[in-house]
Specification:
Elements: H1 3-39, H2 50-64, H3 66-78, H4 82-114, H5 118-137, H6 152-161, H7 164-176, H8 179-198, H9 200-238
Length: 244
């Protein structure tokens, strides 16, 4: 390949990346407008709550559990060349961010469409998250028989990072948090996940296999606690339990 051809390919790649990011930005703005239209302008008020953002950030990070995704991500990364590795990371992050904001900002609309109350969703979501916590503790198996070039969206971005548990948590948060707190939570968690994937080799080298396993099990305990709280709130909302 000549130098001119390489320059043209590099330019086309930059243009495609910029158009992709512009499309993602337009998509996010449309979701925010939809959220405000459904919840009302009051959803933007209330100011930022540091405690609420910190709590929800820890919960969401634990549910996504990017640490446990490192072995599978590294497996696919090793199968690719240097240029394709960058595209793998970009695609995983872009898909992850899109799904996070979609479930967070359009989640309450999904509940209304299907006629599900927030308390019913809390109860069902709590049970789902509890199963997820047990699955992480038991180290559920994950398939590796996939083409690395097709693995960025499925299974890496979803369901490995943004799976049913993450979607459940985001929809519940969309009903209980103000838009500014919700957006900040997602921004922090998405940035943390992106950095972990970017420096996956270094992190894996430092933690080792046993360290990754221990940290994932610690996160599963946080998920189980969050799941128990959701189940309790759902039962209280149904009137089956009295609030403590």
């Amino acid at each position: 390949m000549s130098r001119e051809e390489r320059a043209v390919r590099a330019t086309m790649h930059v243009l495609r990346s910029r158009s992709r990011y512009l499309g993602l930005l337009i998509f996010l703005v449309a979701l925010i407008a939809l959220k405000v239209a459904i919840a009302g302008p009051h959803s933007l008020s209330g100011g930022l709550s540091t405690m609420e953002v910190a709590t929800s950030t820890v919960q969401l990070f634990a549910i996504m559990d990017p640490i446990s995704a490192l072995p599978l991500y590294l497996y696919f990364e090793e199968e690719l060349g240097e240029a394709d590795r960058g595209r793998l990371w970009t695609t995983v992050v872009a898909t992850m961010v899109t799904l996070l904001f979609f479930f967070a900002l359009a989640g309450n609309l999904l509940l209304r469409i299907f006629g599900v109350s927030i308390y019913s969703f809390m109860l069902g979501g709590g049970v789902l998250l509890m199963i997820l916590a047990v699955d992480i503790m038991g180290e559920g198996s994950r398939s590796l028989s996939l083409d690395p070039r097709e693995a960025a969206v499925v299974p890496l971005a979803s369901p490995l990072l943004v799976g049913p548990g993450t979607a459940t948590a985001l929809i519940i948060m969309s009903e209980t948090m103000s838009v500014p707190n919700l957006l900040l939570t997602i921004a922090v968690v998405a940035t943390a996940n992106a950095l972990i994937l970017r420096f996956s080799k270094s992190i894996s080298r430092v933690l080792g296999r046993n360290g990754i396993r221990a940290l994932s099990r610690l996160l599963s305990i946080i998920i189980a606690g969050f799941a128990a709280q959701l189940i309790y709130q759902g039962l209280v909302g149904w009137g089956l339990l009295r609030p403590l």
